[in-house]
Amino acid sequence: MAEASATSDSYVDLNDGRVLQEVGIYRYHHPLENAASFRNRLDSIEARIAELVKSGGAIVKSNLFTFDNSLAKGRRMTDDLAKLMLRAYNAEADNSIRSLKLGNVVTAKRRLEASRTAIAKLGAMMEMHISDHFHALRIEEIELTSDWLMKKQEEKEAEREERARLREERRVERELAEERARLDKERSHLLNALNAIRASGEADPDLELRLRAINDAIAQNDFRAANIRAGYIYVISNRGAFGEDVVKIGLTRRLEPTERVAELSGASVPFRFDIHTLFFSEDAVTLENELHKHFAARALNQANPRKEFFFATPAEVRDVLVEKVGNLLEFSEHAEATEYLQSISLWPTRPSSNPAAETP
C-alpha cells in the first residue's frame, strides 16, 4: 500500500509490485565485474559513512539558535536534536537496506528521501537537515547493496546453469558411449554372420544393408561425440500452463530428445508439453541463439534473457526455422493439449487473470 510521511500530505508509493512494474528492467547503478567487487566497494562506503558521522558532517545545523535567551542552551538543544534526527535517519537507511529485495531499490530510496524531507521540515527552525554528502553516500550504499544482491543472484543462477550444463554433457557422453558400445557389438555380430556366409560362397543383401546402416550410425554417433555443437532444436508449448501462442525454444544433445521434453513436463508445470518439432542440426548452438535473438523482443521474461519462453505461435517459429535451414521434414502447428482440455471443464474456478482459463 502507499504510505505517507508524518509531516506531509503527499504520499510516497511504497508498493514493491507497483514500483517494479513502473520502473521496468533492473539496471545496475554501479556496474562492476562480480559480487566480490560490489562487496569491497560497500565496505569502503560504509567506512566513509562512519567517518562522516564521527567528524560531524552527516547533519547540518545552526549554531545560532538560542533557548531561554541562552546561546549555549540553544546549542545543546540543537546538538541533542541533531543526534536524535540523525539516529532516525540512519535507522530508516539501515532498515531500507535490510529489507532490500531484488529490484526494489526505488522503494528503498523513496523511503530514505521521505525521511530526509521530514527531518528538514521538523528541524527548519534550527536550519537542520541531513547533509547532501551524507545523503549521497547513503543513497550510494543502497544502490550498491541492491546491485550486490542482483549480482549475487545472477552468479548463483549462472552457477546452477553451469552445473546443469555439465550434468547434461556427462549424461550425453554416457549415452553416446553406451550407444557406440551397442553399435560395435551389433556390427561384430553382423560381420561374423557375413563372413560365414561369404566363406560358403553365398551373399546376404539384407545383412549387407544392415551393416551399412550400422556403419552410418557409428559415424553419426562419433560425429555427435566429437561435435558438442550438434543437437536437437525443440519447439514446444504448454497451453494449459502458459496460454495460447507461447512457445519454448531450446536445445538438447540427448540421443532421445523426447526425454528432455519429458523432464520439462515434470512437477514444475501442471500439464505435459506438446512437441511441435525436433530438428537435428550440426550447429544447434548457433541455430538456437539465432532463434532466441529473433524473438528476443517477445520473450516472456524480459528481466532474465536466459529463459526460453516467447510470445510466438508455432507457425511463426516454423517460418523462421524454414528461412534459416531451408526445409523441415516434420512440424506440427497444432497443440493437442490433451491433459489441459480434459481438465478445464472440471476446474472449480476460472480466474479471469489466468490467460489459459478460456473455453477451448
Automatic annotation (TrEMBL):
Keywords: Coiled coil. Residues 149-189 form a coiled coil. InterPro entries: Phage_T5_Orf172_DNA-bd (IPR018306), SNIPE (IPR025280). The keyword Coiled coil applies. Residues 241-324 form the Bacteriophage T5 Orf172 DNA-binding domain. This is Bacteriophage T5 Orf172 DNA-binding domain-containing protein.
